[in-house]
Amino acid sequence: MTPLTEKSNRVAAAIKLQRPAGRRHAARFLAEGPNLVEAALRRGLVEEVFATEDAHARFADLLADLLADAPVHEVTERAAKALSDTVTPVGLIAVCEIPEVALSEVLDAPRLVAVAVETSDPGNAGTLIRLADAMGADALILTGDSVDPYNAKCLRASAGSIFGLPVVQAPDTPEVLAALRSAGLQVLATTLDGETPLPSVDLSLPTAWLLGSEAHGLAPAIAAAADARVRIPMRGSAESLNVAAAAAICLYESAQAQSAQ
């Protein structure tokens, strides 16, 4: 096999990682752009890199670091565009290993866990990962029919936090709820009409927050299974908060209460 043919085969294999089935089969994903690639490199997840001639010049220092750990293949602008899902590719894409994180691992003496239930929007999922990381949560768990966290849009929305926070996919929501309780966490559901206002909850306790989808919120059966259904008091005329705003408030309050102990 010639070097050119081998490179073409590597590009073709990497393109398959743009689809969820391809990522599951290979246990690999694509990280695009210097920020995500550098974050993946720090975590030791980068296996190989594709860079255009222009990217070689723009990101010379980063590529020098990468060369110590992974092969870097120079590719054409056309190949870089095929590997990218952005309108204006930067020409730097890494093939990375998906970290193996088990639910049992993240629930070993946790203090704060965010649980995204039926979160199908990759932008929302990535934002929740970023928020959970910023507030010092132990993990974010994606339950039900949630988006693949290694979707390109989710990766970008996480702003690299997916490499600093354990993220677990666990489709069986009732099983997750049982595991959360077994780990000693109180399970709180964020709901618009919850009977418990946020200021009255003891957030110094180890806590798991159930966060519903942007469009439908939490299913009634899931909300009913929580230890409490919590509402955020609002003084203005807005009827509700989006999931990111609600998550930010609840996770911040939990982090503050736990740090005060």
Q: What's the average pLDDT?
A: 93
The residue fraction in helices comes out at: 40-55%
Using only CA atoms, what is the Rg?
20 Å
Alpha-carbon distance between the two ends: 63 Å
Q: Identify the strand order in the major beta sheet.
A: 7-6-5-10-8-11-9
Element-level helix/strand string: HHEHEHHEHEHEHEHEHEEEHEH
Could you describe the 3D structure shown?
This protein has helices at 3-15, 20-26, 34-42, 53-58, 60-67, 77-83, 103-106, 122-134, 152-158, 173-182, 220-225, 243-259; strands at residues 28-32, 46-51, 72-74, 92-97, 112-117, 139-143, 167-170, 186-190, 196-197, 207-211, 228-231. The chain is elongated, with a radius of gyration of 20 Å. It is 41% helix and 20% strand. The chain is built from twelve helices and eleven strands. With 261 residues, it is α/β, with parallel strands linked by helices.
